[in-house]
Design brief:
This protein has five helices and seven strands. By secondary structure, the chain is of the alpha+beta class. The protein has a single domain, classed as Gcn5-related N-acetyltransferase (GNAT) (Aminopeptidase). The two termini are about 15 Å apart.
Length: about 170
């Protein structure tokens, strides 16, 4: 299995809109993803990438440095220095439960912790998404708190650099 991450571009617009319409992908943020505006537009502290499996688009990852990116979603944290977040999903349902998400997360976590300023990565699975919660906990994320964000009940989890470096790494 060879999964590579590349920057998402406007050429990915139709693909992302299709993936976004699927039931198994996370709901849009409050205002929607606004793919037409976001793709290829520089934004401090935000990277949007496509994961490819042997050259075939497999999933989407958004990496945010919360101290730099103006994300209304995480505003309850007051964008603390050293915190990042990951949004991730597999595009096609037939690619679920094959280990691809784990490899995508492993690479995303490594990218974020390559920045010495990042010490904590946050994720926010919906409270009823037990599969995602188990997945993140196997990767070393630890429960922090339950929150209601944009009318969704989520469980905030964190992976610290210290936990990550103790291994086994995801």
């Amino acid at each position: 299995m060879s999964i590579l991450l590349r920057e998402a571009t406007k050429a990915d617009l139709a693909l992302l809109k299709r993936w976004d319409s699927y039931e198994h992908t996370p709901p849009d943020p409050e205002e929607g993803w606004n793919w037409e505006e976001q793709l290829g537009a520089p934004s401090p502290g935000r990277r949007q990438v496509i994961a490819e499996l042997d050259g075939r688009p497999l999933g989407f990852i958004q990496l945010l440095d919360l101290s730099l990116h103006e994300s209304g979603y995480w505003e309850h944290l007051e964008r603390p220095a050293g915190h990042a977040s990951i949004d991730i999903w597999i595009g096609e349902v037939e690619d679920l439960n094959k280990g691809y998400g784990r490899e995508m997360m492993r690479q995303a976590i490594a990218v974020l912790f390559a920045d010495p300023a990042i010490h904590t990565i946050l994720i926010d699975p919906q409270i009823e998404n037990e599969g995602a919660i188990r997945f993140y906990r196997r990767l070393g994320f630890q429960f922090i708190e339950e929150r209601e964000i944009w009318d969704e009940d989520v469980l905030i989890h964190a992976l610290t650099r210290q936990t990550y470096e103790k291994g086994p790494n995801p």
